[in-house]
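User
Class, as today's exercise, I want you to study this protein, comparing sequence with structure tokens, and judge whether sequence predicts the tokens.
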Amino acid sequence: MNRLGKLAIGFLVLFLVTGAHLSADADGKPKPKKKDDLVIIHTPFGDMTVLLYEETPLHKANFLRLAKSGAYDSTIWHRVIEDFMIQGGDVTKKQGSTATDLDNVPAELDRGFYHTKGALAAARTGDNVNPERKSSSCQFYIVQGREVKRRDLEVDPANMQRGISQLLSSAEYDTIRQKFQNLYQQGKNEAANDLAFSLIDLCEEKFDIKIWKDIPEDVLEDYEKLGGAPHLDGAYTVYGRVVEGLDIIDKVAAVKVNGSKPAEDVYITMEVVNLKTKEITKRYGYVYPPVEK
């Protein structure tokens, strides 16, 4: 199942607050919206169509406001790292801009969205100066990512290392420690990794360490199919995704860079299109969250 079909509970209050309103029946009960906005990001390499999630209403409203006002037009992809992401939207740096003091957007983490290829997420400053993980007022990035193996997603690497280290430091498991040493000496690193994974359940039981992560099956399937940047999950707000034009991400990511800045400016313009929600569901598979009664 695609992540676009995932629903979140409790979105309605935030949704109403931000101005992305539902209409109501005569008796005052809300009813599903009939139309929604998609954003088309125009680049010299082609277009990307972006769908914004209902479950992240603050970010959705902010992105649409900037896109509709033309604030993003003539901005550039200012940070590009191949096999990772493309970042843009710094309206404060574009020629003629007078924007200097824009408000950050409160984080909307843990809404059930992940950094698979095509994910649209908010850039932000680091935890040391931004412990609340508030998002940039304007800058965003789109994930390109790289191939991801399922089993690497299923475990917490830090806890796995801690559990295996504790296991191998115990005289009770000298035989296992010797197996690891033999495998590494023979250059059989993959076999050593297989051995480590086979010991996870034992480590969890013996040392009360949680190593296996609770990741939905459909998310694992999406990462296997699309690739991505799972190390960012839970730390940055994902508030939409590219539903058409994934190949354009690859073309932007492949430009020549100086450090991480493209050697030649790659400009962005945006267009907001309004479609019937039924058409959006039909074209892109996005199922809108249910309206609370």
